Amino acid sequence: MENIILGIETSTFQSGVALAEDGKVLIEHTVNLGPTYSSKLLLDVQYILSEAKISAKDLSGIGVSLGPGSFTGLRVGLSFAKGMTFSGNIPIIGVPTLDVLAFDFINHNALICPIIDAKKEEVYSAFYISNNERQIKKTDYLLLKYSELIKKAKKESNKKSFDKIIFTGEITDTLKKLLLKHFSKKLFLHYTFPSPKNIAIMAAKKLSINPKGDNADTLVPIYLRKPYAIPFNK
In whole angstroms, what is the distance from residue 96 CA to residue 39 CA? Predict the structure, then answer.
């Protein structure tokens, strides 16, 4: 077996791991544990390696979700991936989580808007289009209030004629109602979580361009807001 990539996703409530070989998924395992997934991550990696009948030394690379998303989850996933990288001399490839969500619709003539719930009626988001099976990000990674997301989506959708406007990811009921109100004609809603299999496939593509992968010493999560801090009162 060659060109086997491990994908690790820990940025949202649904976490998981996957293996892909030459761009084809071998196995994927996901669970709904949120930040508590840290206690199960090693066991799940061992499980899928065992199912694929390979060991960590057979890996060509490790793809890991960079966020934005859960602060705790991102730190856990990236720290684990770096540990495997340093101990086994395996290339590490960081994959932004919003890119992972948008990847599901890479062959559509659509404006693609992945969404990660940031609580307090805010979302992490960005806007993408696809061109000849290439994913093109048209904006920065953004932290937006619902009203700001609607405004930004209208602005981006007016730049070109799209068959659909696709919102994919963690879409709350409140946001769903707003989207249906403003984009009813071309709207396509897809409730999902970022998948570790997409991370593995996307990491493989990046590794084919840069065989050394990312610099593990400088690779950090994508944070669009400061972590919450709970005041301690003496």
Answer: 23
- Using alpha carbons only, how large is the chain's radius of gyration in Å? 18
Residues whose CB falls within 8 Å of the CB of residue 78, separated by 6 or more in sequence, listed in order: 64, 66, 94, 219, 220, 221
The kind and range of the H/E element at 116 are strand 110-117
Q: In this structure, what token pair is assigned to residue 184?
A: 């009813």
CA angle, 227 as apex, 223 and 229 as ends, to 5°?
Answer: 175
Strand partners, 137: 128
Place of tokens 């570790």: 196
Residue 123, both tokens: 């979302």
Tens-place pLDDT, residues 114-157: 999 999 999 999 999 987 678 899 999 999 999 999 999 999 99
Could you tell me the two tokens for 133? 């099976």
